[in-house]
TrEMBL record:
Pathway: Carbohydrate degradation; glycolysis; D-glyceraldehyde 3-phosphate and glycerone phosphate from D-glucose: step 4/4. GO terms for cellular component: chloroplast; cytosol. Signal peptide: none annotated. It is found in: Plastid, Chloroplast. This is Fructose-bisphosphate aldolase. SUPFAM superfamilies: Aldolase.
Length: 394
C-alpha cells in the first residue's frame, strides 16, 4: 500500500496520511508519477482532556471498580441463588444495598451499571448516579448488547451493540455516565480462530472510538475465558495474540490511549487444568504479557475476576503489585466482590447493614491488594469459594 510508508500521526488533533491522487489505480505508472501527500484531518474527540481526567481518577491509588452491570438475565441468576425472584423491585433492592454502602468511595473509584440501574433511584427517590457522585465514585455503563454465535467460526461468539451506539452513549453521558464497558470473549478450547480474535479486536476498537467521541472512557475487555484444561503457557500465547490485535485496531481507529482503561483476564491455567498456579506465577505470567503488549500511555489495568474466589482474586492482584508497574494495576470485579455480600443479604432488609459491611471488607481487601499490602489472614471460608461457571455470559 503506497500510503503506509507515509503514515504519520500528528499530535492530538489530526492524522496525515500520504495518499495517491484520486482516480489512479495503485501501482500504475501514472499513479506512481502523481503520488503525493494529501492531508486527511481526523477530528479528535472534543472530550479528550475530560477523558484523560476521568481515566486518571478511576485509576487512583488504592481504588478500583465495582462491577454490577449484570444484564437482567444474569442478575436473575444471582438473585435465584438466594431464592429471590428476578423482579425489578428485587434488582433495585440489591443494587441499592451495594450503591448506598457508606464509605464505599474510599476503596471504589468507579461502578459499572446496567442500563436499568443508570436510570433507577433508591426507594426514597435518590438517583443511583447521585449516590455514587456523593462518594466520589464515577458512574459507568455497560453498552454491549451481549454475545451471539459467530458464523464461520469454531463455535465461537461475537459481541453485538455497535448499531446506535453513538446516540445511546450520548444519552448515557447526559444521564451521568462517564465511562463505558464492552465485554467480548475469546475461548481457548474453541481455538480461538483467527476470525474470532479479529472480530473481537475490531469490535472493541470501534466501540472504544465511539465511546470517546461521546465523552465516555471505554473499558476494553476481551475476556479470555477460564474454561479449558490447557496450561498457563497456552493462556499466555493466546493473551499475547489477542492484545496485539486489540492494540493494532485501537490505533487504527485513532483511539486516545491515555483515555482508555483495560479489563483483562489474568493469565492462569485453564479452570480444568490438573494443577492450579500460585499467585506469584499468575502475577509473573500476567505482567509479562502486559509488559509485552500494553503501552505505558494506558493509565489503568482493571482486572476481571472471571470466577476466581474472592480471596484468590485479591491474592493475585496483590502479587501483581509487589513492585512498581507502568500502569495502575487494580480490579474491576463483579463476582469476586459480590459473592459474600449476596450470601449475607439473603434478601432480608435486616441483613442489609451486615451485607454492606461484607462489601466494605472485600473492597478494602482489594484496595490493599492494589497497594501490594494485602494479607489473607483471617479471611472467611465463604470468601475462599469461587463462582466459576463454564461458558459464563454476562
Ligand atoms: P467478573 O469476572 O469479575 O465476575 O466480572 C466480569 C465483568 O465483566 C463485570 O463487568
Amino acid at each position: 500500500m503506497a500510503s503506509a510508508s507515509f503514515a504519520k500521526l500528528n499530535a492530538a488533533s489530526s492524522a496525515w496520511i500520504g495518499q495517491q491522487s484520486f482516480g489512479q489505480r495503485p501501482g500504475s505508472s501514472s499513479a506512481r508519477l502523481t503520488t503525493r501527500r494529501v492531508s486527511l484531518p481526523i477530528r479528535a474527540s472534543s472530550y479528550k482532556d475530560e477523558l484523560v481526567q476521568t481515566a486518571k481518577s478511576i485509576a487512583s491509588p488504592g481504588r478500583g471498580i465495582l462491577a454490577i452491570d449484570e444484564s437482567n438475565a444474569t442478575c436473575g441468576k444471582r438473585l435465584a441463588s438466594i431464592g429471590l425472584d428476578n423482579t425489578e423491585v428485587n434488582r433495585q433492592a440489591y443494587r441499592q444495598l451495594l450503591l448506598t454502602t457508606p464509605g464505599l468511595g474510599e476503596y471504589i473509584s468507579g461502578a459499572i451499571l446496567f442500563e436499568e440501574t443508570l436510570y433507577q433511584s433508591t426507594t426514597d427517590g435518590k438517583k443511583f448516579v447521585d449516590c455514587l457522585r456523593n462518594e466520589n465514585i464515577v458512574p459507568g455503563i455497560k453498552v454491549d448488547k451481549g454475545l451471539v454465535p459467530l458464523p464461520g467460526s469454531n463455535n465461537e461468539s461475537w459481541c453485538q451493540g455497535l448499531d446506535g451506539l453513538a446516540s445511546r452513549s450520548a444519552e448515557y453521558y447526559k444521564q451521568g455516565a462517564r465511562f463505558a464497558k464492552w465485554r467480548t470473549v475469546v475461548s481457548i478450547p474453541c481455538g480461538p480462530s483467527a476470525l474470532a480474535v479479529k472480530e473481537a479486536a475490531w469490535g472493541l476498537a470501534r466501540y472504544a472510538a465511539i465511546s470517546q467521541d461521546n465523552g465516555l472512557v471505554p473499558i476494553v475487555e476481551p475476556e479470555i475465558l477460564l474454561d479449558g484444561d490447557h496450561g498457563i503457557e497456552r493462556t499466555l500465547e493466546v493473551a499475547e495474540k489477542v492484545w496485539s490485535e486489540v492494540f493494532y485496531y485501537l490505533a487504527e481507529n485513532n483511539v486516545v490511549f491515555e483515555g482508555i482503561l483495560l479489563k483483562p483476564s489474568m493469565v492462569t491455567p485453564g479452570a480444568e487444568h490438573k494443577a492450579k498456579a500460585p499467585p506469584e506465577i499468575i502475577a509473573k505470567y500476567t505482567l509479562t504479557m502486559l509488559k509485552r503488549r500494553v503501552p505505558p500511555a494506558v493509565p489503568g489495568i482493571m482486572f476481571l475476576s472471571g470466577g476466581q474466589s474472592e480471596v484468590e482474586a485479591t491474592l493475585n492482584l496483590n502479587a501483581m503489585n509487589q513492585s512498581p508497574n507502568p500502569w495502575h494495576v487494580s480490579f474491576s470485579y463483579a463476582r469476586a466482590l459480590q459473592n459474600t455480600v449476596l450470601k449475607t443479604w439473603q434478601g432480608h432488609p435486616e441483613n442489609v447493614e451486615a451485607a454492606q459491611k461484607a462489601l466494605l471488607v472485600r473492597a478494602k481487601a482489594n484496595s490493599l491488594a492494589q497497594l501490594g499490602k494485602y494479607s489473607a489472614e483471617g479471611e472467611s471460608e465463604e470468601a475462599k469459594k469461587g463462582m466459576f461457571v463454564k461458558g459464563y455470559t454476562y
